[in-house]
């Protein structure tokens, strides 16, 4: 099925995501009500969530983007499929006719302290009901970038991801494609067996600082966060974090730190800081998907990791300055390149 969908002919390297895609229904309320309470939401705003943002960013960077996860059949799945079509994303994964894709209700309350607190209510659908054969037909071609997200690692579909990882092997040099994982904030809930197989596959790890610290804690990497918690020393701490975690993973590591850009470490190499592009943020949702998608797109074009991260930093800076309903909007490549210049 997968090979037929991808077609026959000259191959253009693509970004392929195994991640789950669902619909987010964002509601702004004055205060999240207690059990049995009542609240009025201000203009509910549906948008596509999950790995869609990675694929959307890759497509806007000018690289073919393909979704290898499961889509359902129904109202939410139709919304997702239409968004794929509108944004040049191809669905190459399985289709389920017996259930719809899932959705998440996101309640956002602005407290008097101006700190935004979000409450998530998930209704899982077809995307979460895969099995060991979900990705069995996936055969990445030369220079493709395969993206795995943490949102696919906690339900039945995780067995399919695990099967793909075992087929991918433990030596990146023997793969003619690139494997990238962004673990998301769900990393602490991933079981030990799944995490072990992820580490053994030695992908490129793309994390924010919180995710990197959680990963370091789970793996027992030698990290001392006292320098940053006492009041300063971010640069020293980031070098220590990347050196300790990177040597434990024995894999490339990218750690994002907002407007400061990202720190990058290659196996056996030095940790390098790639500066970001500070801008006025107008977003309320994470821009991590934009960064990961833009980075994957540049890797698919054959750029090295440092250059790919540099472009991703620029794309993310533009994205957070141009949001739709609080969701960062990844620019096209030319707009990101203009910021680099």
From TrEMBL:
<dbReference type="GO" id="GO:0016301">
    <property type="term" value="F:kinase activity"/>
</dbReference>
<feature type="domain" description="Carbohydrate kinase PfkB">
    <location>
        <begin position="14"/>
        <end position="322"/>
    </location>
</feature>
<keyword id="KW-0418">Kinase</keyword>
<dbReference type="InterPro" id="IPR011611">
    <property type="entry name" value="PfkB_dom"/>
</dbReference>
<protein>
    <submittedName>
        <fullName>Sugar kinase</fullName>
    </submittedName>
</protein>
<dbReference type="Pfam" id="PF00294">
    <property type="entry name" value="PfkB"/>
</dbReference>
<dbReference type="GO" id="GO:0005829">
    <property type="term" value="C:cytosol"/>
</dbReference>
<dbReference type="InterPro" id="IPR029056">
    <property type="entry name" value="Ribokinase-like"/>
</dbReference>
<keyword id="KW-0808">Transferase</keyword>
């Amino acid at each position: 099925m997968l090979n037929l969908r991808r077609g026959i002919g000259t191959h253009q390297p693509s970004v392929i995501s195994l991640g789950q895609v669902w619909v987010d229904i964002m509601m702004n309320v004055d205060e999240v009500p207690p059990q049995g309470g009542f609240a009025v939401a201000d203009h509910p705003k549906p948008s596509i969530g999950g790995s869609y943002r990675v694929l959307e960013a890759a497509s806007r960077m000018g690289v073919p983007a393909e979704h290898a996860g499961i889509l359902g059949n129904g109202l939410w799945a139709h919304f997702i499929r239409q968004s794929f079509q509108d944004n040049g994303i191809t669905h190459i994964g399985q289709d389920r006719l017996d259930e719809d894709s899932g959705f998440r209700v996101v309640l956002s309350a602005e407290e008097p302290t101006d700190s935004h607190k979000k409450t998530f209510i998930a209704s899982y659908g077809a995307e979460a009901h895969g099995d060991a054969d979900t990705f069995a037909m996936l055969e990445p071609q030369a220079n493709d970038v395969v993206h795995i997200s943490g949102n696919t690692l906690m339900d039945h579909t995780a067995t399919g991801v695990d099967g793909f990882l075992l087929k991918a092997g433990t030596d990146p040099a023997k793969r003619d494609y690139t494997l990238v994982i962004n673990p998301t904030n769900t990393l602490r809930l991933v079981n030990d067996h799944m995490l072990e197989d992820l580490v053994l596959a030695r992908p490129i790890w793309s994390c924010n600082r919180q995710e990197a610290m959680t990963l370091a804690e789970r793996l027992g990497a030698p990290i001392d966060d006292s320098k940053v918690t006492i009041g300063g020393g971010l640069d020293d701490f980031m070098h220590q974090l990347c050196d300790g975690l990177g040597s434990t993973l024995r894999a490339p590591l990218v750690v994002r730190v907002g407007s400061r850009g990202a720190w990058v470490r290659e196996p056996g190499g030095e940790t390098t800081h790639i500066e970001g592009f500070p801008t006025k943020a107008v977003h309320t949702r994470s821009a991590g998907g934009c960064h990961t998608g833009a980075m994957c797109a540049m890797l698919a074009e054959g750029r090295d990791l440092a250059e790919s991260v540099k472009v991703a930093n620029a794309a993310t800076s533009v994205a957070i300055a141009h949001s739709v309903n609080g969701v960062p909007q990844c620019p096209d490549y030319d707009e990101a390149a203009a910021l680099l210049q």
